[in-house]
Specification:
By secondary structure, the chain is of the alpha+beta class. The protein has one domain. It has 3 helices and 5 strands; from the N terminus they run E-E-E-H-E-E-H-H. The chain is elongated. The N and C termini lie far apart (42 Å). The model has no long low-confidence stretch (mean pLDDT 83).
Length: 103
């Protein structure tokens, strides 16, 4: 697992299931032996409204470098004021944006 700028995690996971039909995810034994098994994913903790924290996960990348580039783009967007929280309201977004715009 690799991190970018001390924020976010990059890892591989798959959709394999055990005998009880539970998804193995990042714990699949094939991930260690087969380099083409699974897809690369990134996860990053972001602040959410009301002083909570949310983990944003995006997956399906073909390579570790592609997942790292996507994480970097996500963090750049966050630094520019874009909040990818799916629960963020338009009001929350506009209030954040108005506070960031110089007057």
């Amino acid at each position: 697992m690799r991190t970018t700028a001390d924020r976010g995690r990059i890892y591989r996971r798959c959709g394999c299931r055990d005998t009880h039909r539970h998804q193995l995810g990042a714990h699949c034994p094939h991930l260690l032996t087969d380099g083409d098994h699974g897809a690369w994913t990134f996860a990053v903790d972001v602040p959410a409204p009301r002083h909570q924290r949310t983990t944003v996960r995006r997956g399906g990348f073909d390579s570790q470098d592609a997942a790292e580039a996507a994480l970097r783009r996500f963090l750049e967007g966050e630094a520019g004021g874009f909040n990818a929280d799916p629960n963020q309201t338009v009001t929350d977004y506009l209030n954040t944006w108005l506070r960031a715009v110089p007057q």
